[in-house]
């Protein structure tokens, strides 16, 4: 009774939505993932424990190395396209005197376009005929026409280009927020020491942004490692598996072939790699930050 | 699902955020800023005050380039040129594709195919919009999208507000463990949940209920957003506890305190959660694709790729344009909230 009078019961009642939703749709599935990866399930008969068999089969899948390399390729290209550009844009935007609000709205606009619409729209842009949108544009300077999505060599860069367009605005806004946090006194001090614009950018702004730059870097890696929408909607993994990513493999395992065990085994391996990578990354960057 | 996916990378923020809380000085102004931004009311007021102070005190508003730098011709020319370039490229890249889509939505198919960059060489075709809306059932899919967005929104508000209240204000003995478990889910990438969550929806354990083809199959998992709970809990943590004590002394029970005191005070944070919830639901693709097999229940994001195969190009463009219109309008209306939210949650949530 004292428990009820002390508010124990009402806390439990008010906590119920959280406990139910998280319990059923977050905690339970996470535990289930760990169990399922050691089972084979066909949804009809009871699941059977098979030890490491799922992991072994996934690792032996000839497609895995392709998918891993493609995902890495996507991640590296996304870094090349998507890491420096938002930084330069944000620094320039923070130095404009007028229209900063309009500029940030313009930069953020692509982020608001629903991702499916963005991909389908860009698919139209990438039309391989000479009168496609992009081929018309490159035609103005005498280039092309390019096959874009139909050629294994250009398919992945085309995907990354769209993904960068869709995501860059968000990164710009993060950098802009960080830039306003740089103490003006630091610039004053640098000027007293005779620093020009470039040296201020290099020796004051960049070190001050280091924390944010470190975080956006690892966040981008984690995000691109799980890329699904672009390869799924643009190319479905083709041509010749040149855009098959790890997420696409997981999707195929589970929802095309019904190998739920293999799908969870692969997703757990991906999660483990990402976790290890993040830990190493944060250890390493903590060391750099000190020196 | 979508919420989980969106929230996962934020884990790194939190990871970075917690230990840096005053103990690690280097590079952690950012962490402090994130923490500050999580308390929207306080930070908003403070930011406004700071802005005012900055406007009145000269020099405080400065950036990298000083006024003396601006007077140097090389800087003026270089930076001026860079700014012109920035404006042009942001207009072309940010606005260009959207304007093109708006144009294509009312252009006949043949013109889109043959002269995609020409502006209405053979006039406009407004009928694309009504054809898409009525004949290809965009109205139904639009309605489905709204239902999904509103349900996910309600579920997220319910879980985040009640959960945040319990964890922050009532603080039962089991609260710490639950809070820890909620935080832990931030570190689990969404990909891990995909398959087991799907099987859970397929057959809710210990029952014979299947949520396939049910709105609840999308709404309920959307509620399990650790990001929201953390956001709301931190906000409640910063409300003055004296008010709750005073209300309790006056005889208000936990429900009364929640309804009459905490809820009215938490409008700003619930606003942020609401905008994110609606936009995230609008964007979600993979999860509704898996759960809602019945085309009559599918949202725009799931139907559009299917429509692509059997709808004429101009009508398809109209369908894409209709699907984009509402998010853009919401963005333009709540611009401040978006840009502030993106700055705090990372691009992940936008």
Automatic annotation (TrEMBL), chain A:
Coiled coil: none annotated. The keyword Acetylation does not apply. SUPFAM superfamilies: MetI-like. It is a multi-pass membrane protein. Keywords: Cell membrane, Membrane, Transmembrane, Transmembrane helix, Transport. It is found in: Cell membrane. The chain crosses the membrane at residues 12-35, 72-93, 105-122, 209-229, 263-282. CDD domains: TM_PBP2. Residues 68-281 form the ABC transmembrane type-1 domain. Belongs to the binding-protein-dependent transport system permease family. This is Sugar ABC transporter permease.
TrEMBL record, chain B:
Gene3D superfamilies: MetI-like. InterPro entries: MetI-like, MetI-like_sf. Residues 13-31 have a biased composition (Basic and acidic residues). Residues 1-31 are annotated as: Disordered. Its main location: membrane. It is found in: Cell membrane. The keyword Nucleus does not apply. The keyword Transmembrane helix applies. The chain crosses the membrane at residues 81-102, 141-168, 180-202, 214-236, 257-282, 315-334. It is a multi-pass membrane protein. Residues 142-334 form the ABC transmembrane type-1 domain. PROSITE patterns: ABC_TM1. Keywords: Cell membrane, Membrane, Transmembrane, Transmembrane helix, Transport. It holds the Pfam family BPD_transp_1. Belongs to the binding-protein-dependent transport system permease family. PANTHER family: ABC TRANSPORTER PERMEASE PROTEIN MG189-RELATED (PTHR43744:SF12), ABC TRANSPORTER PERMEASE PROTEIN MG189-RELATED-RELATED (PTHR43744). This is ABC transporter permease.
């Amino acid at each position: 009774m004292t428990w009820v009078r002390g508010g124990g019961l009402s806390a439990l009642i008010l906590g119920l939505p959280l406990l139910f939703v998280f319990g059923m749709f977050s905690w339970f599935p996470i535990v289930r993932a760990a169990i399922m990866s050691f089972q084979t399930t066909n949804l009809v008969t009871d699941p059977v424990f098979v030890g490491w068999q799922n992991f072994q089969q996934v690792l032996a899948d000839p497609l895995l190395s392709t998918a891993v390399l493609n995902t890495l390729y996507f991640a590296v290209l996304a870094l090349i396209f998507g890491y420096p550009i938002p930084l330069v844009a944000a620094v320039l935007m923070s130095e404009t005197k007028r229209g900063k609000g309009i500029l940030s709205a313009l930069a953020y606009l692509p982020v608001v376009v629903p991702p499916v619409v963005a991909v389908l729209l860009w698919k139209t842009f990438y039309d391989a005929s000479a009168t496609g949108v992009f081929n018309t544009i490159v035609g103005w300077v005498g280039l092309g026409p390019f096959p874009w999505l139909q050629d294994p060599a250009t398919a992945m860069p085309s995907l990354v280009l769209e993904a960068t367009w869709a995501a860059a605005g968000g990164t710009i806004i993060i950098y802009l927020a960080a830039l306003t946090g740089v103490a003006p006194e630091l610039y004053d001090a640098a000027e007293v020491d005779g620093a020009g614009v470039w040296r201020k950018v290099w020796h004051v702004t960049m070190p001050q942004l280091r924390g944010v730059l470190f975080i956006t870097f690892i966040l981008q890696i984690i995000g691109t490692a799980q890329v699904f929408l672009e390869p799924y909607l643009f190319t479905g993994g083709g041509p010749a598996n040149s855009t098959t990513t790890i997420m696409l493999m997981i999707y195929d395992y589970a929802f095309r072939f019904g190998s739920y065990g293999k799908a969870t085994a692969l997703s757990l391996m991906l999660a483990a790699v990402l976790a290890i990578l993040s830990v190493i990354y944060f250890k390493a960057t903590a060391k750099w930050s000190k020196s | 699902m979508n919420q989980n996916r969106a929230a996962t990378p934020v884990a790194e923020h939190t990871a970075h955020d917690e230990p840096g809380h005053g103990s690690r000085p280097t590079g952690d102004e950012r962490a402090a800023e994130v923490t500050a931004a999580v308390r929207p009311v306080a930070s908003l007021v403070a930011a406004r005050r700071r802005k005012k102070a900055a406007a009145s005190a000269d020099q405080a508003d400065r950036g990298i380039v000083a006024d003396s730098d601006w007077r140097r011709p090389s800087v003026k020319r270089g930076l001026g040129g860079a700014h012109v370039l920035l404006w042009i490229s942001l207009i072309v890249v940010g606005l260009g594709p959207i304007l093109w889509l708006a144009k294509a939505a009312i252009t006949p198919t043949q013109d889109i195919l043959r002269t995609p960059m020409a502006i209405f060489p053979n006039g406009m075709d407004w009928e694309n919009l009504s054809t898409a809306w009525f004949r290809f059932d965009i109205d139904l899919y639009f309605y489905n999208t709204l239902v999904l967005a509103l349900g996910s929104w309600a579920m997220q508000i319910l879980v985040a507000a009640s959960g945040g209240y319990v964890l922050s204000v009532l603080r039962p003995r089991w609260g710490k463990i639950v809070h820890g478990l909620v935080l832990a889910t931030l570190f689990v990438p969404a990909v891990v949940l995909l398959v087991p969550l799907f099987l859970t929806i397929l057959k809710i354990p210990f029952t014979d209920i299947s949520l396939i083809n049910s709105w609840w199959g999308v709404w309920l998992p959307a509620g399990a957003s650790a990001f929201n709970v953390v956001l709301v809990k931190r906000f409640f943590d910063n409300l003055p506890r004296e008010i709750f004590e005073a209300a309790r002394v006056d005889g208000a029970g936990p429900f009364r305190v929640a309804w009459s005191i905490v809820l009215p005070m938490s409008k700003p944070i619930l606003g942020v959660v609401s905008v994110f919830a609606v936009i995230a639901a609008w964007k979600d693709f993979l999860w509704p694709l898996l759960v809602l097999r019945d085309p009559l229940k599918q949202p725009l994001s799931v139907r559009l790729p299917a429509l692509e195969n059997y709808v004429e190009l101009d009508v398809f463009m109209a369908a894409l344009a209709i699907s984009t219109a509402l998010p853009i309008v919401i963005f333009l209306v709540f611009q401040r909230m978006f840009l502030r939210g993106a700055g705090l949650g990372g691009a992940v949530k936008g």
